[in-house]
């Protein structure tokens, strides 16, 4: 009896394998796509896919072929365009490893929403890629640039976005979840970092570009683009972008400088920043209080000051605090001018004053423009670097003696 | 289907008991020496290694006698000094003539006063004669008596106590069991000088008459397990036992399992450790591998050295072994699943690097893995069976030609070579060979599962494997204990090894009787 059951089990278990490698894909059948560019087109969309050539990136023998290639195709919808791409790509596009999606400026100005649905719906795409806008250009041209150091241009962009966000501050890595959350939120408007190229796009797309020590065509990460609903309405400049990141508590490390009393500057490395937003009601009007607490190290001194003196340090602290207020205010003014609550002040008010927010929220556009905002900053200088007195002082003293 | 099952099933009813060869010799000895010798000669077919020496005992009225032994199995010094010498020279001084009329007196005289050997017993049947004769004892037959003497004179060429060939340790005893049962029991007895260490022997195998001993420490061992072992041993009806593997296969709980349910070792220290935990050892004459039951899954991941090195280091190494077991089981299948089904799970850089290597490889990952794994198994098997001098040639062929050249030729990717080598090395980490070979087989099942279902298949396989493991029993003890059923107190010597002074009690499930094994406090400086 036991054997009978074993036989029956055996026969049934054979049928399991009839499914045979269902939905398996060999690596050599995949075109690993690392970046997707989406532009507006008369027909609908023009989709550009940047596909890796793995053998050129990590293979044993490198030939002089390009490490990535781009394929573009038009379509009424993005999905259609992508599938039409199979006519020109040798393998099926594999979208799981997308590092970034770039929207052309034209499309961003017209509205992102129609393009975003596919990206969020497609099961193959992970949601950890960053989204950017090609500033004053088409995404297609942006993806046609070869970069030195990083063989995959998409990797280059993402890593320079990340490093500049972490060390310099006026950029922001926006992922799909975040973008969709802000897009669908009434009390917060989305932002996206801009990208652009300098130099001739044609040389950028050939190997020549990476054969010189200073590539003639280069990819750059720009500042933050402001959206109203899903439409791009304007760009912040560097200082405004930094202010945006101060307000949204998105600063890990950045640089600031102040003028000395005499000629020269003091540069500071801001190592730790914590921003708290709170909302109140004052005279039936909403009011936002921004508290920025920062810690900084002195990084560079090019004037004659005595940093052993506590007063000097306090002086610098005060100056940088004042400057910080200016930066933050500048950013807010710009946003008010563009009529876009990118900081999520509405959210803050909704949290602090949920009842009154119901009335303010109905007319948030106008309220935002006239919003009263108080900025408090508190800067502490913790360390002064590995030297106390700058030798610049000695040089200057010598100069004076010579005269 | 019915036909197929019938084919597999065979015809059970035809089973018969193994022919009993010894039964016809069960009859008693004759009175005359001539008849007895003739009968013995006829039975052994005049085999040249059965030596029969006919002598006369006593000076005047001599009695005819015969000394029989098997050449090569006896210690000739014993035969010469204590048997031949006493019978032919010493006995003359005794007055044989006076007592010859009284049969019993003469017999007692020879037995008690003349034979200076230690082991002397009377034999009355042919069966007993052959049993002793063919085991290396010397038989003395007297004319006119229907009984003789069996004198212990076993002593054959022996390999001696050597270093173990498997389960090597850096620190720990370097002696190993050998092929002689007596040497093996002595090795155990030397370590456990306890009157409660009981050893019982029996002969199994109708033709080989192999001595099989079971050893246990009375009082610690659970009587049910001893009873169970004896019962299962008694059920064996076979013509030959040539190695303990025969016994293992004939008494194990479950045949249809890739996992070993009996532990074997050629290290006396690990067998003794088992006995002290309340397990039963089964020693088989003719093999250095001693069986230990009940065996648990975790036993196969423990080396005796774990107890000789520091507990923290041993614990880490034990965890490493479990990790390697897992690696050896699923590394190739995980690689296949990830590269053919779940490319999104691989970090982009790694994916590109793997994709670059796979470029130009003509086979799908599954086929590639099977090729490499089978090649490796061939190499391994060849390495074991080949004469030692050729062994190194195999490794050169294996590494250079199959590894490097295959990658350079683009038949396999170098990642696959890394995966296969990692698997191979991981499977060698297992301190017991029989667990390592079961993993070896399961790995292929996992490869097929991963090739057809991806990670889903691997998880499916793991679930089935764990279910199967939990269903296994070794002599009544759940195979996965102390994990399932969970016993918190037994965890002190399972995945990790706690310091010895914390292990004051024996494993719960095996031991019902004498649970307290130590009462040592944490060592501290006294001042």
UniProtKB/TrEMBL annotation, chain A:
Compartment list: Membrane
Instruction: Please indicate if the UniProt record lists Transferase as a keyword.
Output: no
Is Lipoprotein tagged as a keyword?
yes
| Pfam families per record | Spore_GerAC, Spore_GerAC_N
Q: Where is the Spore germination GerAC-like C-terminal domain?
A: 224-385
Signal sequence, start to end: none
- What are the UniProt keywords, alphabetically? Germination, Lipoprotein, Membrane, Palmitate, Signal
**Source organism superkingdom:** Bacteria
In terms of one coarse class, where is the protein primarily found? membrane
| Residue ranges of every copy of the Spore germination protein N-terminal domain listed in the record | 24-193
The record's annotation in NCBIfam families points to: spore_ger_x_C
Q: Which PANTHER family match?
A: SPORE GERMINATION PROTEIN B3
**Which protein are we looking at?**
Ger(X)C family spore germination protein
**Species this protein is from:** Aquibacillus rhizosphaerae
> Which lineage?
Bacteria, Bacillati, Bacillota, Bacilli, Bacillales
UniProtKB/TrEMBL annotation, chain B:
Q: What is this protein called?
A: Spore germination protein
> Where the protein is mainly located, per its record?
membrane
**Entry's transmembrane regions:** 280-298, 319-341, 411-429, 441-467
* DNA-binding found in the keyword field: no
**Per the similarity annotation, which family is this?**
Belongs to the GerABKA family.
Subcellular compartments: Cell membrane; Membrane
Q: How does it sit in the membrane?
A: Multi-pass membrane protein
Origin species = Aquibacillus rhizosphaerae
Instruction: Tell me the keywords, alphabetical order.
Output: Membrane, Transmembrane, Transmembrane helix
Checking PANTHER family in the record gives: LEUCINE ZIPPER PROTEIN 4, SPORE GERMINATION PROTEIN
On the tree of life, the source organism's domain of life is Bacteria
